[in-house]
């Protein structure tokens, strides 16, 4: 009597369920959020404005330009949502839903939109040349402040001029430096996401 060998079901491993490229994407999304959270802890309070000087903008520029629009959007969204749920990785070790009612909430929304915009511009190869790369970063920074200053003025119930003087003017010089630093950090970011800037 002959027997028929039946295939033995092998246990499925995580790599079978989620592709390596998808795992890489998830890792980058989490790493981007952690990077912004870490840079947020570089925070210098300024006595004349509720908006501190932080390293967040630099992190958003680097993540947006190097991760692509989708991963960057998801990474910035993860950073914002997790922080609103209570993880204290916003500036000054803050976190929690009360941030929504605070004067700096608009900047967090700006991070998401700016990350997406920076990633989209990078897909058009603006990150291949220094001048277009800096222009892309300047535009991303403008987006952050458009949301941040608008919300700041609304939250504090002050004029547009006052909101600009509190939420934009004090940070212009620092953001110019951040744009240059972001350009320097891009080669390392390209290596992380396995992109070739010469493609």
3D architecture notes:
With 199 residues, the protein is mainly α. The protein has a single domain, classed as Arp2/3 complex 21 kDa subunit ARPC3. It is 65% helix and 2% strand. It is built from 8 helices and 2 strands, in the order ααββαααααα. A two-stranded antiparallel ribbon has the order 1-2. The radius of gyration is 21 Å and the shape is globular.
Entry summary:
The chain is mainly alpha-helical and 199 residues long. The chain is 65% helix and 2% strand. It has a single domain (20-193), classed as Arp2/3 complex 21 kDa subunit ARPC3.
How are the SSEs ordered, and which strands pair?
Blueprint: H1 14-17, H2 20-40, E1 43-44, E2 53-54, H3 56-67, H4 69-84, H5 105-123, H6 130-156, H7 160-167, H8 172-193
Q: What is the mean pLDDT?
A: 82
In the CATH scheme, what's the topology name?
Arp2/3 complex 21 kDa subunit ARPC3
Provide the CATH architecture: Orthogonal Bundle
Order of helical and strand elements:
HHEEHHHHHH
Please give a handful of descriptors for the protein shown.
199 residues, mainly alpha, Arp2/3 complex 21 kDa subunit ARPC3, two-stranded antiparallel sheet, 2 strands, 2% strand
């Amino acid at each position: 009597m002959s027997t028929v060998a039946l295939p033995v079901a092998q246990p499925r491993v995580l790599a079978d369920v989620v592709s390596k490229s998808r795992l890489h994407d998830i890792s980058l999304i989490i790493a981007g959020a952690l990077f912004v959270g870490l840079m947020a802890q570089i925070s210098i309070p300024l006595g004349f404005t509720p908006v501190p000087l932080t390293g967040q903008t630099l992190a958003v520029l680097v993540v947006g330009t190097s991760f692509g629009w989708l991963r960057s959007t998801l990474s910035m969204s993860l950073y914002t949502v997790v922080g609103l749920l209570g993880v204290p990785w916003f500036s000054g070790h803050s976190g929690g839903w009360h941030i929504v009612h605070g004067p700096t909430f608009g900047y967090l929304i700006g991070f998401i939109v700016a990350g997406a915009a920076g990633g989209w511009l990078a897909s058009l190869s603006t990150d291949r040349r220094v001048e277009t790369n800096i222009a892309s970063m300047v535009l991303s920074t403008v987006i952050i402040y458009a949301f941040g200053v608008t919300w700041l003025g609304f939250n504090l119930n002050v004029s547009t001029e006052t909101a600009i003087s509190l939420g934009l003017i004090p940070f212009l010089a620092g953001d110019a430096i951040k744009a240059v630093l972001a350009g320097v950090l891009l080669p390392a970011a390209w290596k992380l996401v396995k992109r070739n800037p010469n493609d």
